[in-house]
Write a structure and sequence with these properties.
With 477 residues, the protein is an alpha+beta fold. It contains 17 helices and 18 strands. A hairpin with a 7-residue loop joins strand 17 and strand 18.
Length: 477
């Protein structure tokens, strides 16, 4: 592995490995410590598989007290710590380093309380995103954020990356659906931020924690907002000759004041890949596809769709196909949510996560294709078009170092393009390792210094997830 990807390992930690493991064994129950090399392999990377590194050890605590005990020990002995949920991070946010103890919260998977009077649920950090909706669904409620990995990804990881999903256009991302957290600081102190009430007193520390990528503390419990299910919902397929036409349609819909539940975009490459995998009935004779979902009563949905279809026709729509049953609606979403996995069946890929102003979508789509073509690669565009959160999938051969290098360079150019048109480096995946060195393209030295000062106020030794988010050079620690 390229050594520039991580801070130098601490020799004192590596040399004291046996003593560290012995102490960790005393802090957690039997079966909650992983330290044999062969058993550490599943924890060496996350969904951003370009980089791998075995950690020093992995702890799987069962409650907040155990997390606090481990952090207190690591802080006292200057041992780096990497928090981990399900390992679905697409930016390398959960990749360890060889002198780090990984704290994996997968055993903390209980739903502690469901309070319909306050429309909230209290859950441990290892509960899956989809698990919340499954628990409350029969009572007519759901948890709104729905990343494509929601079957596996956990609430703790969602909070770390401020994850979104297809329905974030209407319901917002994690920060808009998070009411409170229980969090353990690096020295073992346990703090509660927010709660069942809608607005906590004092500084908005909860807003600071959500999206902090596990660098301010480790969230062990979360209080999340529950939303009543709509009376009905309907996804509709809109096919266009070109990606530019589809992009213009998205901008026109939002500009008209209409906010559907979701607007998802797929270009020809993505359509073909997803249709071959899911058999969702996507049209194959179009250059781009929009999945637009509306919800409400029957008349309400009909009224919204009538206006959306009118706008689509003004933007040269070729095909309009409404779902006619719950089964057909589920298939439409299965195709979209399978995009990443379906692409992985045919090629290695890097998934970008830049966000751009909606008015710039047509321009950025054109430039993205030009960038990838220039590097001799292919791209499949699939993303949350309603909020401009782009996910170009750059296809390459991971066994060819030159191919991999070109893919990474193309991805960096695309992310810089997003910033240059007024957007940002990440919409929901986080910075992690992938975008760390690009932070200087979006932020000035003074802005980065201020962010690092806030981070250091929580963790002055930079022990929590230390090689992530901020460029390695020019750090305050």
């Amino acid at each position: 592995m390229d050594s520039i990807k991580f801070l130098p390992a601490r020799d004192a930690v590596l040399n004291g490995r046996d003593a560290i493991i012995s102490e960790l064994r005393s802090l957690v129950p039997s079966g909650s410590l992983v330290h044999e090399m062969r058993e550490l392999v599943p924890f060496e990377t996350d969904a951003f598989v370009s980089y791998k590194q075995l950690p020093l050890a992995v702890v799987l605590p069962e409650d907040t007290a155990q997390v606090a005990a481990v952090l207190k020990f690591c802080h006292r002995n200057s041992i780096p710590v990497v928090p981990r949920g399900a390992g679905t991070s697409l930016c390398g946010g959960a990749i360890p380093q060889r002198d780090a103890v990984v704290i994996c919260l997968s055993k903390m998977n209980a739903i502690i309380d469901v309070d319909y009077a306050n429309r909230a649920a209290v859950v441990q950090a290892g509960v899956t995103n989809l698990g919340i909706s499954e628990r409350v669904g029969s009572d007519g409620f759901f948890y709104a954020p729905d990343p494509s990995s929601q079957l596996a990804c956990t609430i703790g990881g969602n909070i770390g990356m401020n994850s979104g999903g297809a329905h974030c256009l209407k319901y917002g991302v994690t920060t808009n659906n998070l009411l409170g957290v229980k969090m353990v600081l690096i020295d073992g102190t346990v703090v509660d931020l927010g709660g069942m009430h809608l607005d906590a007193a004092g500084y908005d520390l909860l807003g600071l924690v959500c999206g902090s990528e596990g660098q301010l503390g480790i969230v062990t419990e979360a209080t999340v907002r529950l939303i009543a299910k709509p009376e009905g919902c309907k996804p509709v397929l809109f096919g266009f000759e070109t990606s530019q036409q589809a992009g213009s349609c998205v901008s026109a819909i939002i500009g008209s004041g209409i906010i559907p539940v979701a607007i998802e975009f797929m270009d020809r490459q993505a359509i073909e890949i997803c249709e071959a995998f899911a058999g969702a009935g996507y049209p194959l004779d179009v250059g781009a596809l929009l999945i637009i979902e509306v919800e409400g009563s029957g008349p309400e949905m009909d009224g919204l769709l009538s206006r959306i279809i009118e706008i689509a026709r003004e933007n040269s729509v070729k095909i309009v196909r409404e779902s006619q049953s719950a089964t057909e609606a589920a298939l439409i979403w299965k195709g979209r949510k399978s995009a990443f996995g379906a692409t992985g069946r045919i090629a290695d890929y890097i998934c970008m996560d830049g966000t751009v102003p909606l008015s710039k979508l047509p321009y950025v789509l054109t430039k993205t294709t030009e960038i990838v073509d220039r590097f001799g690669l292919r791209v499949a565009n699939v993303f949350h078009a309603g909020d401009g959160n782009m996910h170009p999938l750059i296809l390459f051969n991971a066994n060819d170092p030159d191919d991999a290098a070109r893919a990474e360079e193309a991805g960096n150019e695309i992310l810089k393009l997003c910033v240059d048109v007024g957007g940002c480096l990440t919409g929901e995946h986080g910075v992690g390792i992938e975008k760390r060195e690009l932070m200087t393209h979006q932020f000035s030295a003074e802005e980065l210094s201020q962010q690092m000062a806030i981070r250091a106020a929580f963790d002055s030794e930079w022990l929590l997830n230390p090689s992530k988010v901020f460029p390695l050079e020019g750090r305050s620690a």
